[in-house]
Design goal:
Layout lengths: L18 E5 L5 H10 L4 E5 L4 H5 L5 E4 L25 E4 L1 H9 L3 E3 L5 E9 L11 E8 L2 E4 L5 E5 L7 E4 L4 E4 L11 H12 L8 H16 L4 E5 L3 H14 L3 E7 L7 H12 L4 E5 L1 H8 L5 H23 L4 E3 L4 H6 L26 E3 L7 H10 L4 H4 L19 H20 L8 E5 L5 E5 L2 E14 L7 E2 L4 H14 L3 E6 L13
Parallel strand pairs: 1-2, 1-3, 3-4, 4-11, 12-13, 12-15, 13-14, 15-16, 19-21
Antiparallel strand pairs: 5-8, 6-7, 6-9, 9-10, 10-11, 17-19, 18-19, 19-20
Helix pairs in contact: 5-6, 5-11, 6-11, 8-9, 13-14
The structure holds xanthosine-5'-monophosphate.
The site of xanthosine-5'-monophosphate (XMP) has 13 residues, from loops.
Protein backbone atom coordinates (compact mmCIF):
# COMPACT_ATOMS: atom_id res chain seq x y z
CA UNK A 1 0.00 0.00 0.00
CA UNK A 2 1.25 3.45 -0.85
CA UNK A 3 -0.61 4.93 2.09
CA UNK A 4 1.48 7.16 4.23
CA UNK A 5 1.46 6.32 7.90
CA UNK A 6 2.35 9.85 9.07
CA UNK A 7 -0.46 10.86 11.41
CA UNK A 8 -1.65 14.43 11.24
CA UNK A 9 -0.49 16.37 14.29
CA UNK A 10 -3.21 17.86 16.49
CA UNK A 11 -3.98 21.47 15.66
CA UNK A 12 -3.23 23.92 18.45
CA UNK A 13 -5.34 27.06 18.98
CA UNK A 14 -4.59 29.85 16.46
CA UNK A 15 -2.94 32.08 19.05
CA UNK A 16 -0.59 29.27 20.00
CA UNK A 17 0.73 28.62 16.51
CA UNK A 18 4.07 30.40 16.59
CA UNK A 19 6.13 32.17 14.05
CA UNK A 20 9.51 30.62 14.68
CA UNK A 21 12.52 32.87 14.35
CA UNK A 22 15.48 30.70 13.45
CA UNK A 23 18.43 32.30 15.19
CA UNK A 24 21.47 32.40 12.93
CA UNK A 25 23.49 34.48 15.34
CA UNK A 26 22.41 38.00 14.38
CA UNK A 27 22.25 40.77 16.92
CA UNK A 28 18.62 41.45 16.03
CA UNK A 29 17.18 37.92 16.36
CA UNK A 30 15.39 38.74 19.63
CA UNK A 31 14.17 41.96 18.15
CA UNK A 32 12.56 40.09 15.24
CA UNK A 33 10.57 37.94 17.68
CA UNK A 34 9.54 41.04 19.61
CA UNK A 35 8.40 42.84 16.47
CA UNK A 36 6.35 39.84 15.36
CA UNK A 37 4.71 39.80 18.77
CA UNK A 38 4.03 43.52 18.45
CA UNK A 39 2.02 42.55 15.37
CA UNK A 40 0.03 40.37 17.82
CA UNK A 41 1.34 37.10 16.42
CA UNK A 42 3.06 34.76 18.87
CA UNK A 43 6.73 34.20 18.12
CA UNK A 44 9.62 32.25 19.58
CA UNK A 45 13.31 31.90 18.89
CA UNK A 46 14.68 28.51 17.91
CA UNK A 47 18.17 27.25 17.30
CA UNK A 48 19.32 27.11 13.71
CA UNK A 49 20.34 23.45 13.96
CA UNK A 50 16.83 22.30 14.88
CA UNK A 51 15.67 19.55 12.49
CA UNK A 52 12.87 20.57 10.11
CA UNK A 53 10.58 17.89 11.60
CA UNK A 54 11.00 19.35 15.08
CA UNK A 55 10.00 22.75 13.74
CA UNK A 56 7.06 21.23 11.89
CA UNK A 57 5.86 19.61 15.11
CA UNK A 58 5.33 23.11 16.51
CA UNK A 59 2.76 23.86 13.76
CA UNK A 60 4.44 27.14 12.90
CA UNK A 61 2.52 29.75 10.96
CA UNK A 62 5.77 30.82 9.38
CA UNK A 63 9.54 30.69 9.77
CA UNK A 64 11.83 33.69 9.76
CA UNK A 65 15.53 33.15 9.22
CA UNK A 66 17.43 35.82 11.11
CA UNK A 67 20.51 37.78 10.21
CA UNK A 68 23.96 36.66 11.25
CA UNK A 69 27.53 37.90 11.26
CA UNK A 70 29.10 35.18 9.08
CA UNK A 71 29.43 34.76 5.30
CA UNK A 72 27.14 32.01 4.07
CA UNK A 73 29.92 30.47 2.00
CA UNK A 74 32.47 30.49 4.85
CA UNK A 75 33.47 27.18 6.38
CA UNK A 76 31.44 26.38 9.48
CA UNK A 77 28.93 29.17 8.80
CA UNK A 78 25.58 28.48 10.53
CA UNK A 79 22.95 26.95 8.29
CA UNK A 80 19.53 25.37 8.57
CA UNK A 81 18.04 21.97 7.77
CA UNK A 82 17.27 22.42 4.03
CA UNK A 83 14.13 20.29 4.50
CA UNK A 84 12.50 23.27 6.15
CA UNK A 85 12.08 24.91 2.75
CA UNK A 86 9.92 21.95 1.77
CA UNK A 87 7.52 22.10 4.72
CA UNK A 88 5.06 24.29 2.84
CA UNK A 89 5.38 26.80 5.66
CA UNK A 90 6.12 30.37 4.52
CA UNK A 91 9.75 31.33 5.06
CA UNK A 92 11.13 34.86 5.25
CA UNK A 93 14.90 35.25 5.19
CA UNK A 94 16.33 38.47 6.59
CA UNK A 95 19.88 39.58 5.63
CA UNK A 96 22.06 36.49 6.31
CA UNK A 97 18.83 34.43 6.28
CA UNK A 98 18.05 35.73 2.80
CA UNK A 99 21.55 34.96 1.58
CA UNK A 100 21.35 31.46 3.01
CA UNK A 101 18.14 30.86 1.08
CA UNK A 102 19.70 32.18 -2.10
CA UNK A 103 22.71 29.91 -1.70
CA UNK A 104 20.69 26.81 -0.84
CA UNK A 105 17.95 27.28 -3.42
CA UNK A 106 19.86 27.72 -6.63
CA UNK A 107 20.83 31.41 -6.40
CA UNK A 108 24.21 32.94 -5.69
CA UNK A 109 25.87 34.97 -2.95
CA UNK A 110 29.10 36.88 -3.48
CA UNK A 111 31.32 39.51 -1.92
CA UNK A 112 30.62 42.24 -4.48
CA UNK A 113 32.94 44.74 -2.90
CA UNK A 114 29.90 46.80 -1.89
CA UNK A 115 29.33 46.91 1.83
CA UNK A 116 26.32 48.75 3.11
CA UNK A 117 25.81 49.77 6.73
CA UNK A 118 22.93 52.02 7.61
CA UNK A 119 20.36 53.99 5.72
CA UNK A 120 19.69 52.94 2.11
CA UNK A 121 17.00 53.84 -0.37
CA UNK A 122 15.39 51.02 -2.29
CA UNK A 123 12.85 50.86 -5.10
CA UNK A 124 10.21 48.21 -4.48
CA UNK A 125 7.66 46.60 -6.78
CA UNK A 126 4.11 45.77 -5.93
CA UNK A 127 4.00 42.17 -4.77
CA UNK A 128 3.18 40.54 -1.48
CA UNK A 129 5.81 41.95 0.87
CA UNK A 130 5.44 45.50 -0.41
CA UNK A 131 1.69 45.43 -1.06
CA UNK A 132 0.11 48.83 -0.43
CA UNK A 133 3.48 50.49 0.25
CA UNK A 134 5.17 53.32 -1.67
CA UNK A 135 7.80 52.14 -4.21
CA UNK A 136 10.59 54.36 -2.86
CA UNK A 137 11.51 53.36 0.70
CA UNK A 138 14.20 54.04 3.26
CA UNK A 139 15.55 50.93 4.91
CA UNK A 140 18.42 49.81 7.13
CA UNK A 141 21.12 47.58 5.66
CA UNK A 142 24.06 45.85 7.28
CA UNK A 143 25.89 43.52 4.92
CA UNK A 144 29.17 42.81 3.16
CA UNK A 145 28.04 40.01 0.82
CA UNK A 146 25.19 40.37 -1.63
CA UNK A 147 22.77 38.06 -3.39
CA UNK A 148 23.80 38.18 -7.05
CA UNK A 149 21.24 35.65 -8.28
CA UNK A 150 17.94 34.99 -6.47
CA UNK A 151 16.68 31.45 -5.77
CA UNK A 152 15.45 29.62 -8.82
CA UNK A 153 11.84 30.44 -9.61
CA UNK A 154 11.77 33.59 -7.48
CA UNK A 155 11.25 37.17 -8.60
CA UNK A 156 13.29 40.18 -7.51
CA UNK A 157 10.90 42.72 -6.00
CA UNK A 158 13.21 45.40 -4.60
CA UNK A 159 16.65 46.78 -5.26
CA UNK A 160 18.93 49.75 -4.93
CA UNK A 161 21.78 50.88 -7.19
CA UNK A 162 24.31 49.24 -4.87
CA UNK A 163 22.20 46.20 -4.01
CA UNK A 164 20.15 45.29 -7.08
CA UNK A 165 18.67 42.27 -5.30
CA UNK A 166 17.31 43.70 -2.07
CA UNK A 167 14.23 41.45 -1.89
CA UNK A 168 12.79 38.41 -3.67
CA UNK A 169 9.53 36.48 -3.61
CA UNK A 170 8.46 33.03 -4.70
CA UNK A 171 4.74 32.95 -3.83
CA UNK A 172 4.34 29.43 -5.19
CA UNK A 173 6.87 27.92 -2.80
CA UNK A 174 6.09 30.60 -0.21
CA UNK A 175 9.72 31.69 0.05
CA UNK A 176 10.66 35.33 0.65
CA UNK A 177 13.84 37.23 1.36
CA UNK A 178 14.90 40.76 2.22
CA UNK A 179 18.46 42.02 2.43
CA UNK A 180 17.57 44.89 4.78
CA UNK A 181 16.32 44.71 8.36
CA UNK A 182 12.55 45.22 8.62
CA UNK A 183 12.77 44.74 12.42
CA UNK A 184 14.89 47.87 12.88
CA UNK A 185 12.87 51.06 13.32
CA UNK A 186 15.05 52.99 10.85
CA UNK A 187 13.44 50.85 8.16
CA UNK A 188 10.51 53.17 7.71
CA UNK A 189 8.03 50.55 6.48
CA UNK A 190 9.62 47.64 8.32
CA UNK A 191 6.59 46.84 10.44
CA UNK A 192 4.30 47.10 7.39
CA UNK A 193 6.51 44.64 5.53
CA UNK A 194 6.43 42.24 8.49
CA UNK A 195 2.65 42.63 8.70
CA UNK A 196 2.33 41.86 5.00
CA UNK A 197 4.37 38.73 5.52
CA UNK A 198 2.45 37.68 8.63
CA UNK A 199 -1.10 38.61 7.71
CA UNK A 200 -1.13 38.21 3.90
CA UNK A 201 1.48 35.56 3.19
CA UNK A 202 1.36 33.44 6.34
CA UNK A 203 -2.31 34.05 7.08
CA UNK A 204 -1.45 34.52 10.74
CA UNK A 205 -4.26 36.45 12.45
CA UNK A 206 -3.36 39.18 14.97
CA UNK A 207 -4.90 37.34 17.91
CA UNK A 208 -2.00 37.15 20.36
CA UNK A 209 -3.10 39.77 22.83
CA UNK A 210 -2.54 40.25 26.54
CA UNK A 211 -5.97 38.72 27.11
CA UNK A 212 -5.00 35.63 25.09
CA UNK A 213 -1.73 35.32 27.03
CA UNK A 214 -3.61 35.41 30.32
CA UNK A 215 -5.96 32.70 29.14
CA UNK A 216 -3.16 30.45 27.88
CA UNK A 217 -0.95 30.94 30.90
CA UNK A 218 -3.67 30.34 33.45
CA UNK A 219 -4.63 27.10 31.68
CA UNK A 220 -0.98 26.04 31.67
CA UNK A 221 -0.54 26.86 35.35
CA UNK A 222 -3.68 24.89 36.27
CA UNK A 223 -2.40 21.90 34.34
CA UNK A 224 1.00 22.07 36.02
CA UNK A 225 -0.07 22.73 39.57
CA UNK A 226 -3.26 20.70 39.98
CA UNK A 227 -4.42 20.92 43.58
CA UNK A 228 -1.00 21.57 45.10
CA UNK A 229 -0.04 24.61 47.12
CA UNK A 230 2.04 27.35 45.56
CA UNK A 231 4.28 29.94 47.15
CA UNK A 232 5.37 33.26 45.69
CA UNK A 233 7.80 35.83 47.02
CA UNK A 234 6.57 39.32 46.18
CA UNK A 235 9.24 41.98 45.85
CA UNK A 236 7.16 44.97 44.85
CA UNK A 237 8.54 44.79 41.29
CA UNK A 238 6.45 44.26 38.21
CA UNK A 239 7.69 40.73 37.40
CA UNK A 240 6.82 39.07 40.68
CA UNK A 241 3.56 41.04 40.84
CA UNK A 242 2.36 39.90 37.42
CA UNK A 243 3.54 36.32 38.02
CA UNK A 244 1.62 36.24 41.30
CA UNK A 245 -1.54 37.62 39.76
CA UNK A 246 -1.45 35.09 36.94
CA UNK A 247 -1.04 32.21 39.38
CA UNK A 248 -3.77 33.59 41.59
CA UNK A 249 -6.11 33.86 38.63
CA UNK A 250 -5.30 30.25 37.75
CA UNK A 251 -5.48 28.50 41.12
CA UNK A 252 -6.93 31.09 43.50
CA UNK A 253 -6.18 30.56 47.14
CA UNK A 254 -3.85 27.62 46.54
CA UNK A 255 -1.38 30.48 46.17
CA UNK A 256 0.16 32.23 49.14
CA UNK A 257 2.34 35.27 48.59
CA UNK A 258 5.07 36.11 51.02
CA UNK A 259 6.17 39.70 51.19
CA UNK A 260 9.30 40.20 53.24
CA UNK A 261 9.64 43.80 54.35
CA UNK A 262 13.37 44.15 54.94
CA UNK A 263 13.08 47.84 55.73
CA UNK A 264 15.19 48.74 52.69
CA UNK A 265 12.33 49.70 50.42
CA UNK A 266 11.36 53.18 49.27
CA UNK A 267 8.92 55.30 51.21
CA UNK A 268 5.40 53.79 51.41
CA UNK A 269 6.31 50.86 49.13
CA UNK A 270 5.61 48.14 51.65
CA UNK A 271 2.19 49.59 52.44
CA UNK A 272 1.49 49.82 48.74
CA UNK A 273 2.24 46.14 48.13
CA UNK A 274 0.06 45.04 51.04
CA UNK A 275 -2.77 47.32 49.95
CA UNK A 276 -2.66 46.22 46.31
CA UNK A 277 -2.37 42.49 46.84
CA UNK A 278 -4.14 41.95 50.10
CA UNK A 279 -6.98 44.40 49.92
CA UNK A 280 -7.43 45.04 46.22
CA UNK A 281 -6.72 41.66 44.63
CA UNK A 282 -7.53 39.53 47.70
CA UNK A 283 -4.43 37.42 47.21
CA UNK A 284 -3.58 35.49 50.38
CA UNK A 285 -0.60 37.46 51.60
CA UNK A 286 1.81 36.96 54.44
CA UNK A 287 3.43 40.27 55.26
CA UNK A 288 6.59 39.63 57.23
CA UNK A 289 7.90 42.65 59.07
CA UNK A 290 11.58 41.71 59.22
CA UNK A 291 12.94 45.25 59.39
CA UNK A 292 14.68 44.81 62.71
CA UNK A 293 16.32 41.55 61.68
CA UNK A 294 17.81 43.03 58.54
CA UNK A 295 18.94 46.24 60.20
CA UNK A 296 20.45 44.26 63.06
CA UNK A 297 22.53 42.20 60.68
CA UNK A 298 23.55 45.23 58.61
CA UNK A 299 24.71 47.23 61.62
CA UNK A 300 28.28 48.41 61.15
CA UNK A 301 28.63 46.78 57.71
CA UNK A 302 30.04 49.14 55.08
CA UNK A 303 31.34 46.84 52.35
CA UNK A 304 28.85 46.77 49.41
CA UNK A 305 29.28 43.08 48.59
CA UNK A 306 28.95 42.18 52.25
CA UNK A 307 25.68 44.14 52.38
CA UNK A 308 24.39 42.26 49.33
CA UNK A 309 25.36 38.93 50.86
CA UNK A 310 23.69 39.69 54.17
CA UNK A 311 20.44 40.84 52.59
CA UNK A 312 20.38 37.80 50.29
CA UNK A 313 21.06 35.30 53.09
CA UNK A 314 18.66 36.86 55.52
CA UNK A 315 15.97 36.95 52.87
CA UNK A 316 16.32 33.21 52.31
CA UNK A 317 16.20 32.56 56.03
CA UNK A 318 13.02 34.56 56.56
CA UNK A 319 11.42 33.03 53.50
CA UNK A 320 12.23 29.50 54.63
CA UNK A 321 10.77 30.12 58.05
CA UNK A 322 7.54 31.36 56.51
CA UNK A 323 7.37 28.46 54.07
CA UNK A 324 7.76 26.05 56.97
CA UNK A 325 5.01 27.78 58.91
CA UNK A 326 2.68 27.51 55.92
CA UNK A 327 3.12 23.72 55.68
CA UNK A 328 3.47 21.50 52.64
CA UNK A 329 4.10 23.48 49.51
CA UNK A 330 5.14 21.98 46.26
CA UNK A 331 5.60 24.89 43.90
CA UNK A 332 7.45 28.16 43.90
CA UNK A 333 6.56 30.99 41.51
CA UNK A 334 9.45 32.67 39.80
CA UNK A 335 9.34 35.67 37.49
CA UNK A 336 11.89 34.39 34.94
CA UNK A 337 11.53 36.31 31.66
CA UNK A 338 12.03 35.16 28.07
CA UNK A 339 15.17 37.30 27.79
CA UNK A 340 16.66 35.33 30.73
CA UNK A 341 15.80 32.08 28.96
CA UNK A 342 17.36 33.24 25.69
CA UNK A 343 20.46 34.65 27.33
CA UNK A 344 21.12 31.34 29.02
CA UNK A 345 21.05 29.68 25.58
CA UNK A 346 17.75 27.93 26.13
CA UNK A 347 15.97 29.20 23.06
CA UNK A 348 14.16 25.92 22.64
CA UNK A 349 12.89 26.20 26.14
CA UNK A 350 15.46 23.66 27.30
CA UNK A 351 17.41 25.50 29.95
CA UNK A 352 16.09 25.64 33.46
CA UNK A 353 17.12 29.13 34.34
CA UNK A 354 17.11 30.53 37.78
CA UNK A 355 17.78 34.22 37.75
CA UNK A 356 21.10 34.82 39.40
CA UNK A 357 20.41 38.51 39.72
CA UNK A 358 16.91 37.90 41.00
CA UNK A 359 15.39 40.91 42.65
CA UNK A 360 14.87 39.23 45.97
CA UNK A 361 18.34 37.83 46.10
CA UNK A 362 17.74 34.26 44.94
CA UNK A 363 15.68 31.62 46.65
CA UNK A 364 16.74 28.51 48.52
CA UNK A 365 17.64 25.60 46.28
CA UNK A 366 17.50 22.92 48.93
CA UNK A 367 13.85 23.62 49.63
CA UNK A 368 13.12 21.26 46.79
CA UNK A 369 10.34 23.27 45.27
CA UNK A 370 9.33 22.91 41.66
CA UNK A 371 9.25 26.15 39.71
CA UNK A 372 6.21 27.75 38.16
CA UNK A 373 7.38 30.33 35.65
CA UNK A 374 4.41 32.03 34.06
CA UNK A 375 6.48 34.79 32.42
CA UNK A 376 8.99 32.46 30.88
CA UNK A 377 7.84 33.20 27.34
CA UNK A 378 7.35 36.95 27.78
CA UNK A 379 9.52 39.97 27.18
CA UNK A 380 9.46 42.74 29.77
CA UNK A 381 7.17 45.05 27.78
CA UNK A 382 4.73 42.15 27.39
CA UNK A 383 4.78 41.49 31.13
CA UNK A 384 3.77 45.12 31.58
CA UNK A 385 0.90 44.76 29.11
CA UNK A 386 -0.31 41.61 30.87
CA UNK A 387 -0.07 43.51 34.18
CA UNK A 388 -2.21 46.31 32.78
CA UNK A 389 -4.75 43.80 31.49
CA UNK A 390 -4.88 42.17 34.93
CA UNK A 391 -5.65 45.57 36.47
CA UNK A 392 -2.32 46.10 38.23
CA UNK A 393 -1.99 49.81 39.13
CA UNK A 394 0.17 51.90 36.78
CA UNK A 395 2.63 52.61 39.54
CA UNK A 396 3.53 48.94 39.77
CA UNK A 397 3.33 48.21 36.06
CA UNK A 398 5.79 50.96 35.19
CA UNK A 399 7.95 50.84 38.31
CA UNK A 400 11.66 51.36 37.66
CA UNK A 401 13.96 48.40 38.36
CA UNK A 402 14.93 48.29 42.01
CA UNK A 403 17.84 46.26 43.38
CA UNK A 404 17.14 43.40 45.78
CA UNK A 405 19.38 44.87 48.52
CA UNK A 406 17.36 48.07 48.11
CA UNK A 407 18.41 51.24 49.88
CA UNK A 408 21.24 49.38 51.63
CA UNK A 409 23.35 49.86 48.48
CA UNK A 410 22.26 53.47 48.01
CA UNK A 411 23.51 54.45 51.46
CA UNK A 412 27.27 54.58 51.31
CA UNK A 413 28.70 53.28 54.56
CA UNK A 414 26.59 52.51 57.61
CA UNK A 415 22.93 51.63 57.14
CA UNK A 416 21.12 53.06 60.16
CA UNK A 417 17.50 53.96 60.86
CA UNK A 418 18.33 57.63 60.79
CA UNK A 419 20.18 57.48 57.47
CA UNK A 420 17.45 55.28 55.92
CA UNK A 421 14.88 57.86 56.93
CA UNK A 422 16.87 60.69 55.29
CA UNK A 423 17.34 58.77 52.07
CA UNK A 424 13.72 57.64 51.90
CA UNK A 425 12.43 61.19 52.26
CA UNK A 426 14.87 62.61 49.69
CA UNK A 427 14.07 59.80 47.25
CA UNK A 428 10.33 60.35 47.68
CA UNK A 429 10.66 64.09 46.92
CA UNK A 430 12.79 63.36 43.85
CA UNK A 431 10.32 60.80 42.46
CA UNK A 432 7.30 62.94 43.24
CA UNK A 433 8.76 65.84 41.27
CA UNK A 434 9.95 63.65 38.40
CA UNK A 435 6.44 62.19 38.12
CA UNK A 436 4.89 65.62 38.32
CA UNK A 437 7.15 66.73 35.44
CA UNK A 438 5.89 63.74 33.42
CA UNK A 439 9.39 62.29 33.10
CA UNK A 440 9.15 59.07 35.13
CA UNK A 441 8.56 56.79 32.15
CA UNK A 442 11.32 58.46 30.13
CA UNK A 443 13.88 57.35 32.67
CA UNK A 444 15.28 53.88 33.19
CA UNK A 445 15.99 54.56 36.85
CA UNK A 446 15.95 57.62 39.04
CA UNK A 447 16.87 57.67 42.70
CA UNK A 448 18.64 59.45 45.52
CA UNK A 449 21.96 58.35 47.02
CA UNK A 450 23.25 59.17 50.48
CA UNK A 451 27.05 59.42 50.59
CA UNK A 452 29.09 58.93 53.75
CA UNK A 453 30.40 62.46 53.91
CA UNK A 454 29.18 65.66 55.48
CA UNK A 455 29.88 69.23 54.52
CA UNK A 456 29.50 72.66 55.99
CA UNK A 457 26.49 74.85 55.31
CA UNK A 458 24.66 77.76 56.84
CA UNK A 459 21.04 77.85 57.84
CA UNK A 460 19.60 80.95 59.47
CA UNK A 461 22.30 82.17 61.82
CA UNK A 462 24.00 78.90 62.40
CA UNK A 463 26.44 76.73 60.61
CA UNK A 464 25.39 73.19 59.70
CA UNK A 465 27.46 70.12 59.17
CA UNK A 466 25.20 67.75 57.26
CA UNK A 467 24.90 65.17 54.48
CA UNK A 468 24.61 65.87 50.77
CA UNK A 469 22.09 63.97 48.65
CA UNK A 470 23.13 62.84 45.18
CA UNK A 471 20.57 62.64 42.41
CA UNK A 472 21.09 59.75 40.05
CA UNK A 473 18.87 59.58 36.95
CA UNK A 474 19.72 57.49 33.90
CA UNK A 475 18.33 56.52 30.55
CA UNK A 476 19.06 53.02 29.30
CA UNK A 477 17.74 50.20 27.15
CA UNK A 478 18.78 47.26 29.27
CA UNK A 479 21.00 48.49 32.15
CA UNK A 480 24.12 47.15 30.38
CA UNK A 481 24.96 50.68 29.34
CA UNK A 482 23.36 53.89 30.56
CA UNK A 483 23.63 57.62 30.13
CA UNK A 484 22.93 60.28 32.73
CA UNK A 485 19.58 61.89 32.08
CA UNK A 486 19.46 65.56 31.12
CA UNK A 487 16.85 66.57 33.66
CA UNK A 488 15.47 70.09 33.16
CA UNK A 489 17.03 72.79 35.35
CA UNK A 490 13.73 73.94 36.82
CA UNK A 491 12.96 70.38 37.92
CA UNK A 492 16.43 70.10 39.50
CA UNK A 493 15.91 73.41 41.20
CA UNK A 494 12.60 72.33 42.75
CA UNK A 495 14.01 68.99 43.85
CA UNK A 496 17.10 70.57 45.37
CA UNK A 497 15.30 73.27 47.32
CA UNK A 498 12.64 70.85 48.56
CA UNK A 499 15.18 68.28 49.73
CA UNK A 500 17.31 70.87 51.53
CA UNK A 501 14.36 72.67 53.10
CA UNK A 502 12.27 69.67 54.06
CA UNK A 503 14.85 67.21 55.31
CA UNK A 504 16.80 68.00 58.44
CA UNK A 505 20.26 66.55 58.15
CA UNK A 506 20.72 67.50 54.47
CA UNK A 507 22.29 70.80 53.40
CA UNK A 508 23.42 70.12 49.83
CA UNK A 509 22.22 68.37 46.65
CA UNK A 510 24.57 67.15 43.93
CA UNK A 511 23.89 65.65 40.50
CA UNK A 512 25.64 62.53 39.20
CA UNK A 513 26.82 63.17 35.61
CA UNK A 514 28.38 59.79 34.90
CA UNK A 515 27.52 57.32 32.19
CA UNK A 516 27.86 53.55 32.44
CA UNK A 517 30.55 52.53 31.66
CA UNK A 518 32.75 53.60 33.36
CA UNK A 519 30.39 54.25 36.30
CA UNK A 520 27.65 51.83 37.28
CA UNK A 521 24.03 52.82 37.74
CA UNK A 522 24.03 52.11 41.47
CA UNK A 523 26.64 53.65 43.72
CA UNK A 524 27.56 50.43 45.47
P1 LIG B 1 24.72 48.57 37.96
O1 LIG B 1 24.76 49.36 39.22
O2 LIG B 1 25.61 47.37 38.00
O3 LIG B 1 23.23 47.99 37.89
O4 LIG B 1 24.93 49.42 36.74
C1 LIG B 1 22.63 47.40 36.76
C2 LIG B 1 21.19 47.09 37.14
O5 LIG B 1 21.14 46.09 38.14
C3 LIG B 1 20.53 46.58 39.32
N1 LIG B 1 21.29 46.04 40.46
C4 LIG B 1 20.88 45.03 41.25
N2 LIG B 1 19.73 44.32 41.24
N3 LIG B 1 20.50 43.07 43.09
C5 LIG B 1 19.54 43.36 42.19
O6 LIG B 1 18.48 42.73 42.22
C6 LIG B 1 21.67 43.73 43.16
O7 LIG B 1 22.51 43.48 44.00
C7 LIG B 1 21.87 44.77 42.18
N4 LIG B 1 22.88 45.65 41.93
C8 LIG B 1 22.52 46.39 40.87
C9 LIG B 1 20.58 48.08 39.20
O8 LIG B 1 19.55 48.71 39.95
C10 LIG B 1 20.45 48.28 37.73
O9 LIG B 1 19.09 48.20 37.31
Amino acid sequence: MAETNVLPLPEPAPEERPVLVVDLGGQYSQLIARRVRECRVYSELVRHDAPAQALRARHPRALILSGGPASVYAEGAPSVDPALYELGVPVLGICYGMQLMAQELGGRVEPTGVSEFGRTEIEAEEGELFAGLPPGQVCWMSHRDSVTAPPQGSRVVAGSPSTPIAAFEDPERRLYGVQFHPEVLHTVHGTDILKNFLYRVADAPPVWTAAAVIEEETARIRAQVGNARVLCALSGGVDSAVAALLVHKAVGDQLTCVFVDHGLLRKDEAAHVVETFGRHFHVPLVHVDARERFLGRLAGVTDPEEKRKIVGEEFIRVFEEEAERLGTTRYLVQGTLYSDVIESGGTEGIAEVIKSHHNVGGLPEHMDLELVEPLRMLFKDEVRRVGEELGLPDEMVWRHPFPGPGLAIRIIGDVTDERLEILREADAILLEEVRRAGLYRELWQCFAVLPAIRSVGVQGDSRTYAYPIVIRAVTSEDAMTADWARLPYDLLETVSSRIINEIPGVNRVALDLSSKPPATIEWE
